[in-house]
Design goal:
Blueprint lengths: L1 H8 L3 E5 L5 E10 L2 E6 L2 E6 L5 E4 L4
Antiparallel strand pairs: 1-2, 1-5, 2-3, 3-4
Length: 61
């Protein structure tokens, strides 16, 4: 999953679903060592890749 995220979503705005109420939004800043780092409103969120259930682009076309 890590290489997929880097290849398709690096520097793009995404939505991430991790189950239940756990949903995150932001721009992919980095993805390494099993951790995805996103940035939204100048705040960073670090998410364990193995907890991600779904991920999709939030880019407006």
């Amino acid at each position: 999953m890590q290489s997929f995220i880097v290849e398709h979503y690096l520097q793009k705005k995404i939505d991430i679903y991790c189950g239940g109420p756990d949903r995150f939004y932001g721009v992919v800043e980095a993805c390494a060592d099993g951790v995805l780092t996103i940035k939204d409103e100048n705040k960073y969120t670090h998410i364990a890749i193995d907890k991600i259930i779904a991920i999709w682009s939030d880019e407006k076309k």
